[in-house]
Specification:
Layout lengths: L3 H26 L3 H8 L9 H29 L2
Helix pairs in contact: 1-3
């Protein structure tokens, strides 16, 4: 049995870190700016900047938490 809250927190943390690192690398090096612009069409406030990376991390955490919780819930539901 999977703990839904724990999986949600774990996936949320990973997704937040990925979005933050991608935005900051794009801001510092210019590499991946087009990818950030495409992702920004889905995530309001996300951009290749310091603040945009933090906003993206919040979006990433929310998305990762919800996805992780749903995965654990479905696994527990269908694994009975």
């Amino acid at each position: 049995m999977l703990n839904a809250k724990s999986l949600g927190l774990a996936l949320g943390a990973v997704a937040a870190a990925c979005m933050l690192i991608c935005a900051w690398i794009a801001a510092l090096t210019g590499w991946g700016v087009d990818m950030i612009k495409i992702a920004a069409t889905c995530y309001l406030g996300y951009s290749a900047s310091f603040l945009g990376g933090i906003i993206g991390a919040l979006w990433g955490f929310a998305k990762g938490f919800i996805l992780g919780w749903l995965i654990a819930w479905a696994y527990n539901k269908f694994n009975k």
